[in-house]
From TrEMBL:
SUPFAM superfamilies: vWA-like (SSF53300). It comes from Gemmata obscuriglobus. Pfam families: DUF58. It comes from the Bacteria. This is DUF58 domain-containing protein. Residues 69-232 form the VWFA domain.
Length: 298
């Protein structure tokens, strides 16, 4: 995190991740973004799975890692609440580094990567592309500091989904300090449009554990409102309410069909890549099982 260049920082994380992959029990675990889906007119017939057709009498497209053109939209919450950090790393530092790391990783695979930054509205939209200079464009946008006076998930995610005609992968980085119903609406809209969604909730350890010990004024980063709090009397209630909201947010994401991971800013960044690959592998296996079950039922 001491490396100022976001692109160089991402490269160091990805290279460390790949070296660790060969030394770890995960040796052989790779980005196998394979999936099955029904054939539609216009699809390349070279990718038809004839064995599955023989069992089911239906046409399915089987796409493998080297044949898949993944279109990934990185969605980064740049609201002021993301600027909080109890230590040396703010939530925004962590989120934008994780986003840049995924962009670097996917760009090396020649996948198309785009970016949406938002607060109470869309701040910047960069369409997914796989071309020289795209990574530099993305990291330049991620260097900007958080702004906005509120967090709105529904509007920005709905806008991003509306301008995306092809199905793709949406990866959201946000503290999700919004009502759980807003999470359900925003994620549900993307899923209803056929997109895969991975949600990374980024939090500061103090937000989760609330280990403050001295009474004082707590200031809302977005509204500026200040509230006097004595942690000795408020800590238990805060933790209970925070845990209840966290459980609701997780439930809304998973109910909508999104993969969900909660991260704190003291977690090693290369593990975000493990989370990404694990989520994609789960979805690929689920799609394959679904296709085979439909074939067996017939």
């Amino acid at each position: 995190m001491r490396i100022k260049s976001l692109q160089l920082r991402a490269r160091v994380i990805v290279e460390g991740f790949e070296k660790g992959l060969h030394r770890s029990p995960y040796h052989g675990f790779s980005a196998e973004f394979s999936e099955y889906r029904q054939y539609t007119p216009g699809d390349d017939p070279r990718y038809l799975d004839w064995r599955l057709f023989a069992r089911s009498d239906r046409y399915y497209i089987k796409k493998f890692e080297d044949e898949t053109n993944l279109r990934c939209h990185l969605i980064a919450d740049g609201s002021r609440s993301m600027g909080y950090g109890s230590g040396t790393v703010t939530k925004w530092d962590y989120a934008r580094t994780a986003a840049a790391t995924i962009a670097y990783f996917l760009s090396r695979q020649r996948d198309a990567v785009g970016l949406v930054t938002f607060a109470d509205r869309v701040v910047e939209y960069i369409p997914p592309r796989a071309r020289p200079g795209q990574l530099a464009h993305l990291t330049a946008a991620l260097h900007r500091d958080p702004g906005g006076t509120a967090t709105d998930l529904v509007g920005p995610l709905g806008e991003a989904g509306a301008v995306t005609r092809r199905r793709g992968l949406f990866v959201l980085f946000s503290d999700l300090l919004v009502p759980a119903s807003a999470v359900r609406t925003a994620i549900g809209g993307l899923r209803a449009a056929g997109h895969d969604v991975i949600v990374f909730r980024v939090l500061d350890p103090q937000e989760v554990h609330f280990r403050f010990d001295a009474p004082g004024l707590f200031r809302d980063a977005e509204t500026g409102r200040e509230v006097f709090v004595d942690p000795r009397t408020a800590a238990d209630e805060y933790r209970a309410r925070f845990a209840a909201h966290a459980a609701d947010v997780r439930q809304e994401c998973t109910s909508a069909g999104a993969d969900f991971e909660q991260l704190t800013t003291d977690r090693p960044l290369e593990l975000v890549l493990f989370d990404l690959l694990r989520a994609r592998a789960r979805r690929g296996r689920a799609a394959a099982r679904s296709a085979q079950n439909r074939g067996g039922g017939r």
